[in-house]
Amino acid sequence: MGKLTIWIVFAVVLLVLPQIFDSVLSLSIFTQMTIAIVFALSYNMLLGQGGMLSFGHAVYFGLGGFLAVHAMMMIEFETLSFSITLIPLVGGVFGLLAALFIGSFSTHKAGTVFAMISLGIGELVAASSLILVSFFGGEAGVSGDRTYGPPFFGIDFAQDDHVYYLAAAWMFFAVLCMYLFTQTPAGRMANAVRDNPERAEFMGYSARRVRFISFAMAGFFAGIAGGIFAVNYEILTEENLNAATSGRVLLMAYIGGLGFFIGPIVGAVVLTLINSLLSNYTDLWMLYLGILFLLTVMFLPRGLTGLLMMHRVAWQLGRMRLLLLPYTLTAIPGAVFILGMIAMIEMSHAEDAEFVYLGLALAPAGYGSWALLLGVTAVAFFVLRRTLPRLREAWSQANTLPRQPRHEDGHP
Amino acid sequence: MIEVLIFATLNGLVTGLLLFMLASGLTLIFSMMGVLNFAHASFYMLGAYFAYSISLYTGFWPALIIAPLLVGVVGALVERYGLRRVHKSGHVAELVFTFGLAFLIEEAVQFFWGRSTMNYESPALLDFPLFTLFGQNFPAYKAFMIFISVSIFIGLYFVLTRTRIGIIIQAAITHPNPVANLGHNVPFIFMAVFGVGSGLAGLAGVIAGPVLTTFPGMAAVLGSIVFVIVVIGGLGSLAGALVASLLIGLLQSYAIASDVGMQDLLDLLGVSFAADHPLNDIWRLTLPQIAPIMPFLLLVLVLIFRPSGLLGKRES
Amino acid sequence: MSLLQLQNVCKSFGPTQIIRDVSLNIEQGEKHAIIGPNGAGKSTLFHLISGRYKVSSGGILFKGAPIHNLEPFQITRRGLARSFQVTNIFPLLSVFENIRCALLWSMGYKYSFWHFLSRQTALNERAEALLEEIGLFERRNIPAGELAYAEQRALELGIAIASGAEMILLDEPVAGMSHSEAKNAVALIRKVTEGRTLVMVEHDMNIVFDVADRITVLVYGEVIASDVPEKIRGNPRVQEAYLGETPHA
Question: CA-CA distance, A164 to A171, in Å (whole number)?
């Protein structure tokens, strides 16, 4: 499949998605995803592509967003007059300006120093935003209205699906630009500086300048994400530029996989789904997210995308079917084990006398339900331990290159 | 005026020493393992919660001993089964791991103890004013906090300078690699240092819980400030951590106690602005208002102008 | 005028003096070797010339202009490239990307984010030609970190020469190689430094006397001799430094 085909498929998917899943909830989730994707990809320009671990990336998202809301208010009060479709660009420009300023001193070093400066600036901006009430609106934030301004081909963005298409268009544009950036000299040198800043300097490049460019770009696209957010929610609060938002984007990029361009996209999609779907079912979803994140860092350093990409060799060798049965055999006890653990966690937190889980009526107060769950989970655990070696064996079998033909001919 | 100054100094000292208990453990861990542990303040929070739960059964004093030990064990386990695994993926992965751990511990605390503030109180034994000055009381418990912090500092100093393990640790701080070559069981030392550092943080939590309130956000409140301290003091420098802790503690305490603001400065300069001036938020800033952001301002300035920190010798 | 001039260069780390008052001229087109016992400061001297360390006192002039206060990237841009004793490549990037990155600055791309690398025909052809030259064309698509040691050394050399620098500093280019590998490497060095000025630090005397037109002997941070190979061979102080007891111990 050519690269152009991938982009066309991507565009078509974006166009068709809301036609297939047309509920209010799914539309809102899709819009959230577009914002998360742009934000996570912009973060990956720093961490994945440029080797800069930032704990304050929400600053550019938030500042871009706040300025976007202010621009929306100016349109509303007719101080400015331009189409609301350009609001994300306003966010981008201010994200860029903020990044140009902060990057001018923070990109001197990568590593821990950069991480600490980003943390300090993140805290500084978040705390200042609560003090500077007239611009940031204090705890309540600032809000605007996206329906003013000259209509865009007769659309006034009062409807949610219009907002989705606007967000998706900006997202497509931003993703394309960020992808193309990785294919330019500045983008490639960002990788080089990430891996070995010293050698890059002996090739004529200032490592600091290379980082600065990536940093400014990341600020620009984070600002675009903030601008899309502003159009969608019409409100920004301190929460959008504080440490929690900075942490969330790190989670997305990391869980998705830093080493791959599509990694953060995967992470953004998965986390948005967890965020909006899981939170309907349980109050403990943040706990599960924390566990998922730690497990990813420990066992999947290349993220979910890395997990998929691990199968490339087996796929190319045409041996995926060798893995099918072992995977199924492991997945069944694995799923039972995970579901059992979740059931116990949830039950320990259940407030009612009866607790319905997967159609099963459990009684948190009695010993019976606990014993049942404990038993099932323990059995699943032991079965899992039995099936894992087999999976490992199948894995190595599926991934070893075929032996040389002359050996396979057998003895002469 | 003088009583404000005295009490601000005392409170600053209490905060500063408390911060140092956290910062010292963090510095030790960083010096040994090169890991800036984001979850350090989470162990401090665990200390407070453990102590609260234990004190329900045994009262405060046994909890003072048991809770830090428990936290130390948790820390050692985290090092053994988590951090060590991530170590081979590099420093960024380690930092991200501890970041995730902080996130998870906060969620876990809410899972086990709920979101509300715990009714964790200082022991009745120390519930009296130690002295009264200008009609203001200084509680005995705060003096106890100072006593514990100073004892820990002296104990740590003694261990580091007078004992064999302390000399190994010091050697590891200055020359990380050769120590391994000398045949010491470095993984075990790492685990022990991580455990002890976490335990110290736990102890800080035990004694700070009753004063600074025990709630799920307490790690986040202190966490980034402790980070700021070890960076300002100079990564890997215990003396720097002490200076920075006291500096930040006193600075914040004075700022909160003072009632000066931009208005006073403007009056002094004879400048005034209209009541609807767009930058009025800035003209009306007061020192207590900006107290919480001062450590971060200091951090950014130090990192820009002196990346090795106040007393640090090496740049990270 | 000499291409590179070192004037009374000194370098200290704390109280320890590593380079003591080194003055040296290197002419255009010369193949110059710097030798000396371990710890003589040969690598330090390279780091000073290439800007990795700053001189404590003294001056370094390249093409007549002082470079001792410049950053490494500024020195590189003036036409002075170097390789490293410990292989210093981009292990995660492909071999091809390593070479292409090394070509970028000299081909004028600077920090461009408006050129697409895949469309730069001249750049990509030159990278491929260079890969042929250093014998890594077949291996161009694998991550550089997965190359064998001798191949990594060849890549190291390739990165150093890619910029088309007039002067090339090679820090122990054949260290750690087997005899036959070293032989190939020397042939490669000869080929790729044709018409350029070469300064190399090397321990293998056969190679030094084979390649160099002039040799400088550095002992305890001081130049004790700088001459054509035949004269160096017969120099009593050099023999003392290499064979006899050293007075400095």
Answer: 10
